[in-house]
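Dear all,

This email documents one entry for the complex benchmark we are building for the journal club exercise. For each entry we list the sequence lines for every component of the assembly. Then comes the predicted three-dimensional structure of the complex as a token string, followed by one or two observations. Please use this as the template for your own entries, and keep the labels exactly as they appear.
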Amino acid sequence: MNLAHLLVRAARIDGARTAVFLDDRPIHGYGVLMARASALARAFGTDHHLRPGDRIALFMRNHPAVVELMFACWWGGYVAVPVNAKLHPKELAFILGHGGARLCFATDDLAGIADQAAREAEPMAEPGRPSARARVISAESAEYDRVAARGHAEPPIEAAPDDLAWLFYTSGTTGRPKGAMLSQRNLLAMTLCYFADVDGIAPGDAILHAAPMSHGSGMYILPHVAAGAAQIVPRADKFDPGAIFELLGAHKGVTMFAAPTMVKRLVEHPRVARADLAPLKTIIYGGGPMYLADIRHALAAMGNRFVQIYGQGESPMTITALGRHHHADTGHPRHLQRLASVGVAHGAVEVRVADDADRVLAPDQAGEVLVRGEAVMLGYWRDVNATAAALRGGWLHTGDVGAFDTDGFLTLKDRSKDLIISGGSNIYPREIEEILLRHPDVAEVSVIGRPHPEWGEEVVAAVVLRPGKSLAVDGLDALCRDSIARFKRPRAYIAVESLPKNNYGKVLKTELRRYLGGKESA
Ligand code: AMP
């Protein structure tokens, strides 16, 4: 089945229902969205001589056209390559060349970068075809609209389950990004798992794209189209909690996908106490660690609206989920442990924790998280070695370290590369971060290892203090003394104004290590 049939079905059921909003303004109904996607798909073939399987990059800020372009790709059998809008021209040039994108749709604010990147890209060679630089097309031009308005053409092309649908370049904080090849089957599994394990969606509900549509929020276009719900694209390019609260008033049944840092900003916004949250149905958080103190605050401030997912580009949005009912189950004897976990395996995948030799570990033993099943990528685009390493033995090696409890709840420790080894002992930064966040003066914290001549590494905490507070090392150390082994206690605390984060709200520990490695500690 072609994913585009989800759009066809929604359009048949109710073509007049609004499919896309810009802020509070309806942009298209489902019938028009379908006609535009199909017209664009035809134009890729007729006007640009693309063949099914060709890649089409989307280098766009969040914009209504992202929705129709993704479906246009699938409609015609092309591969969508959504790219993080904050990338440097050189990074985009790498993706365009490596991915062999023949077209690159850009919003006007990014067209200059896209042009530069397309000129610098070294296009891949394809047997039997002249290699071509990506042609940059504005998704905001009158010409683009004219093509999209040509009207509904042929039905979606036949697609096989393993046909490539989305080339997901990893946010890669180190080294070259890798292109996780996501198939039609992978995205359908992700969509069905949404309904089974994350949330129900009714026609007339909506997803508000407060996070980049090139990543998790964009993945969730699919279940919302499957349910005949709407996409709300905020006009503001930056995440603005005040504007989000404002926008909620114009909609109902709203879901948002948010990184934990975004949830924190919503919870700490002065409007949260007086905002009418009735239209906000669900906040799905994930993409980085949610600390226990933070989710407890969030539940107290915003009520039982939260679902957590754990996924990665290689098994998109679909490794484990912690449902709304688990957030609400305060009477359960292990409620807090569950809140600190990432929940249980999604229905379409098997998840296990294994040692370095891939032997399955018993509950409560920490090891690498492995995943197998319908959501797991086909492999990495043009990277046989990385594919063989990541998928060895038929299991995706996530690089995340975690442990299951006896009930099947997975608690993540850290990325294996963030593990600190000091004096031969393994130290998981997250454990220390959870403790330091209990201190009332601490707004954010990130713990890293710094080279040490004797111990190999020593533990260092970078602390963002609340306004007007100063670093009180004794108080922080006392907290640690109360809760964790001596060898895990930070040897240095460094007050920082902010933590380095990527466009998706993930703390860039590699950058932090580089920055703190050479600095004198407090
Ligand atoms: P990406 O491929 O950019 O989506 O990044 C995936 C990585 O983000 C995972 O391998 C985890 O390290 C992290 N991650 C995703 N979801 C969660 C979560 N719920 N809790 C903690 N870390 C997460």
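Observations: The CA atoms of residues 169 and 179 lie 4 Å apart. Residues 170-171, 286-289, 308, 310-313, 342, 398, 400, 412, 415 surround adenosine monophosphate (CB under 6 Å).
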